[in-house]
Amino acid sequence: MITFWMAENSKNLNLKEILDIEKIKAVNQPIEQANGLPNECYTSSQYLMIERENVFKDKWTVIGVGSSVPNPGDAKPYNLLGIPLIILRDKENKVRVFHNVCSHRGFKLLSEPCYLKNVLRCPYHSWSYDFEGKLVATPHIGGLNIHTLEKFDKSKSNLKEVRSNVWMDIIFVNINNNEVEFKEYVKPLEDRWSKFITKKDQHLLVYSRDHGHFSLDVKSNWKFAIENYCESYHLPTIHPELNKVSNISDHYHIQGLPNRFAGQGSKKYEKLIKGNKSFDNFKNWPKDLNKKSEYIALFPNVMIGLHIDHFYTFWLEPISVNETKEHLAMYYIGENSANGKEFESMRKENVRFWKDVMSEDIKVIEGMQEGRNSPVYNGGNFSPVMDGPTHQFHKWVASNLIA
Ligand code: FES
Ligand SMILES: [Fe+2]
């Protein structure tokens, strides 16, 4: 608990107790001289608590997708490194996020996904909240059958709502309510992608209900998944099949500025075609760019794959310093491609393809985690040619630690 308190009050002081600040500064050197983040950033549970403060609470962090609460009244709990949250779809179809704690005696309100008819009722003494978080019932608060008290102002005990935003079905939260407006945050990425899709096209995305989701448990720190996703350097060694279709030289780096995202793109994306069938395309995607696809990590914890005919989000749930749950959600353009019977086997094949790719990556992510137990590893070096986007992510983390 002392760690949390100190992290709130003196970011740098606390960090200094855990690792050598000079090692963080070394990350920000030009790539030829830079080292990666030091081992403690992947092995120290105390460090993870600093990251919880400086990264996950301070930034626009992903906690799920809107399609996991598809209907008004659907609600589910989420645990962000110990912080209990509720994701709820209200009657106006808006996804809201609340702190998952009753204002009475602090019971955690929701423990599993459920459908709520009208209110969120605390299982302990039945205080109830509407979908806007308003406290609407306090049964027996004044003794048996006395449900209101003049001296108790209900309006001061509503649920605490978390600042949130849904973009391309991805739910972002900014727990400390201190980040720039979400629109501004995502604008550099939207601008980059405006050559492929318009804002209107974003609404054509439909979640695939039958083969649209999988999760993977990884024995690694969450950051390794992002670092690996940012580069195509490992294609020939780790993804030999993928490399046959689209090899290293068909890829290009993506390094967004201001530094909020990084990744890679391919110039050789091939649509899945079965006989005369293929998924629908984004309507305004230019013909001369139809073989382009982009794989971008939007910091801190979501990776996105954009193609002319499908889109996925691959987001990370940090569990502990060396355990992460990866979640993929798959989308197509229009209801027919996303859920029509005629495309079912193709959807199955497409999600299987991506699951195989992500599973191949697990062994390298876990291998890096194991390597970080070595006392002689100093954060390593980068290839100035191949590792630019990965270095950019290291710098982003470093800048949030010693800003
Ligand atoms: S703690 Fe929720 S009603 Fe008492
Ligand atoms: Fe990979």
Automatic annotation (TrEMBL):
Residue ranges that the Swiss-Prot or TrEMBL entry lists as coiled coil: none
Cofactor(s) this protein cannot do without: Fe cation
Ion transport among keywords: no
Keywords assigned: 2Fe-2S, Iron, Iron-sulfur, Metal-binding, Monooxygenase, Oxidoreductase
Pfam families per record: Rieske (PF00355), Ring_hydroxyl_A (PF00848)
Domain (Rieske) ranges: 62-173
GO molecular function, one term: monooxygenase activity
PROSITE patterns (alphabetical): RIESKE
PANTHER family tied to this protein: CHOLINE MONOOXYGENASE, CHLOROPLASTIC
Name the UniProt record assigns to this protein: Choline monooxygenase
Native source species: Pelagibacter ubique
